[in-house]
Amino acid sequence: MENKLNLSFNFSDEDKTLIKEAVKEVVSKAINDFGTHLRQSTNFKDTKATCEALGITKPTLARYRAKGYIQGKRIGSKYFYSEDEIIKAASVNLRYKH
What residue segments make up the domains of the chain, in order of their start? Predict the structure, then answer.
């Protein structure tokens, strides 16, 4: 059996705007904080560090990700790559799999 709770609130347009802005700010901060944590982690590298490790450009990395040659974790608008994924991608000669 499913329990449902129906709540109804009547907020003014101004209150709705304030709530949306507050939620947007909190979510944005949480995403940025988590991204910072991943960048500082030894297990994950950002796009720039991944490109440097593989000797490829950002567009090439995006193409490899789209084709499934490497898996990235998307946090907000940024991607992070585990060291295992980078090692796996480096061990396969991806330069000739266009």
Answer: 15-96
Which of 47, 73, 49 is closest to 59 using CA atoms? 47
Q: How far is CA 57 from CA 46, 64, 76, 95, in A?
A: 13, 11, 21, 11
Range 15-96 has CATH code 1.10.150: no
Q: Tens digit of pLDDT for each residue in 62-72?
A: 999 998 899 99
The tally of CA atoms less than 13 A away on the side-chain side of residue 97 is 15
Tokens of 14: 């101004």
Span 2-34, pLDDT tens digits: 777 887 888 899 988 998 899 888 888 887 777
User: What is the rounded distance in angstroms from the CA atom of residue 86 to the CA atom of residue 90?
Assistant: 6
Does residue 68 sit in helix, strand or coil?
Answer: coil
Strand order in the sheet with 73-75: 44-46, 78-82, 73-75
